[in-house]
């Protein structure tokens, strides 16, 4: 994955990326070690997915996990993630709520 990571992350910034590509890319990124040089771009993209309620639930849930892994190295972002997750909980699907609660518990935000 490492040689292709830049291409994959840049591809997510395109306007017309199909939902399936977003979903599978974010699913894959959950398990990859992401070099520090990509953290800023990926954090912005993941927060964008989380805030956009028109984004498919699977993409939002996988983005949540990627963010959780990245903010372990960027603790200043824990509060921002907590605020977004708590704001979304009343409107979210059961899958989103389940993952959000687990992440909030793991990050000691509650």
Considering the chains and any ligands shown, give keywords for the structure:
mainly alpha, 0% strand
Strand-residue proportion: under 5%
What structural class is derived from the secondary structure elements? Answer: mainly alpha
Total of DSSP H or I helical runs spanning 4+ residues: 6
What is the distance, rounded to the nearest whole angstrom, between the alpha carbons of the first and last residues? 34 Å
Helix content: 55-70%
**In this structure, how is the largest beta sheet organized?**
none
Instruction: Give the averaged pLDDT, no decimals.
Output: 90
Summarize the structure.
With 110 residues, the protein is mainly alpha-helical. 64% of the residues lie in helices and 0% in strands.
Description of the molecule:
- The chain is an all-alpha fold and 110 residues long.
- 64% of the residues lie in helices and 0% in strands.
- It has six helices and no strands.
- The chain has helices at 5-11, 19-29, 39-51, 57-71, 78-88, 94-106.
- Helix 2 (19-29) runs parallel beside helix 4, helix 3 (39-51) runs antiparallel to helix 4 (57-71) and helix 4 packs parallel to helix 6 (94-106).
- The longest helix is centred in the middle third of the chain and has 15 residues, at 57-71.
- It is globular, with a radius of gyration of 13 Å.
- The model has no long low-confidence stretch (mean pLDDT 90).
Please give the structural blueprint.
Layout: H1 5-11, H2 19-29, H3 39-51, H4 57-71, H5 78-88, H6 94-106
């Amino acid at each position: 994955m490492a040689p292709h990571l830049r291409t994959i992350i840049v591809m997510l910034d395109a306007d017309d990326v199909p939902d399936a590509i977003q979903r599978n890319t974010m699913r894959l990124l959950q398990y990859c070690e992401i070099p520090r040089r990509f953290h800023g771009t990926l954090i912005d993209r993941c927060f964008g997915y989380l805030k956009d309620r028109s984004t498919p639930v699977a993409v939002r849930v996988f983005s949540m996990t990627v963010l959780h892994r990245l903010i372990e190295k960027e603790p200043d972002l824990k509060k921002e993630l907590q605020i977004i997750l708590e704001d979304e909980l009343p409107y979210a699907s059961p899958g989103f709520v389940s993952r959000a609660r687990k992440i909030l518990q793991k990050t000691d935000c509650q």
